[in-house]
Amino acid sequence: MSKATVGFGIDIGGSGIKGAPVDLVTGEFTAERVRIPTPRSSTPQAVAEVIKDVFSEFEDLPHDIPIGVAFPGPIDHGVVRMAANLDDAWVGVNIETMLEDLLGQRVHAVNDADAAGFGEATFGAARNETGVIFLATLGTGIGSALIVEGHLVPNTEFGHLEIDGFDAESRAAESARAREDLDWEQWAERLQRYFSHVEMLLSPDLFVIGGGVSKHHENFLPLLEMRAPIIPAQLFNAAGIAGAAAFAADRDRYERKIAKREKEQLKKEKKKSKS
Length: 275
Ligand code: BGC
Description:
CATH superfamily of the largest domain: ATPase, nucleotide binding domain
CATH class of the largest domain: Alpha Beta
Number of domains: 2
Strand content: 15-25%
Structural class: alpha/beta
Helix content: 25-40%
Number of strands: 14
Largest sheet: 5 strands, mixed
Bound molecules: beta-D-glucopyranose
Order of helices and strands: EEEHEEEHEHEEEEEHHHEEH
Oligomer: single chain
CATH topology of the largest domain: Nucleotidyltransferase, domain 5
Distance between the termini: 32 Å
Shape: globular
Number of helices: 7
């Protein structure tokens, strides 16, 4: 099997399900992104049908294209452990096997913020950065990704830190700013409280801030005082898709490596038992 140059990324969000083929060198989409609104009842079956529709909009994709799906909850070996902003029926579902049955191909699922972090580390703001990087996505919830010397530590869920008796994302996510009609200064105070706590826990070398609102970073990032530099993400809305595709390609490579190693081991054992 030759090395994939294009992957396919799908990003499941609270309002839209988006997908596009991604150039694995540049992170750019090789065809225009397709977006279908997330079904009101966001059950696994309903969302899976939409994913199939998004995927089938693209013809002539290589049959063994790596497929990555970014999901707004922690993914533990393919199994959804929590879905704060989607239907509860997701909990306990193996999203990878479910989508593999539907699409007829290997699928790798990854938390959406982890996908964004992986995308930023591969193609964007955190490219070539070393040390400990903390990426936060500020949207309906707060997603987190921790990247240590280029390696993703998955499922950190730091948006759910309890701060001052509140689930952090309920106070500091972009949705809280909109819901409570906070001005930039008021919101920045909450972000300061949140990121200072994260900084106390992790001492990152770099903060990267993603999510749709990162487009307006000049309104709030300069108001934050952190020890480490705090910079906006570069991929904006593309981060989930590009990151999921790159993640899938990486996992495919890893699985092939393991399969090869096991095959060689088996061969060795066979040879040994014959002699
Ligand atoms: C979820 C995270 C997710 C984040 C952003 C949180 O509520 O628990 O898994 O990354 O929202 O979608």
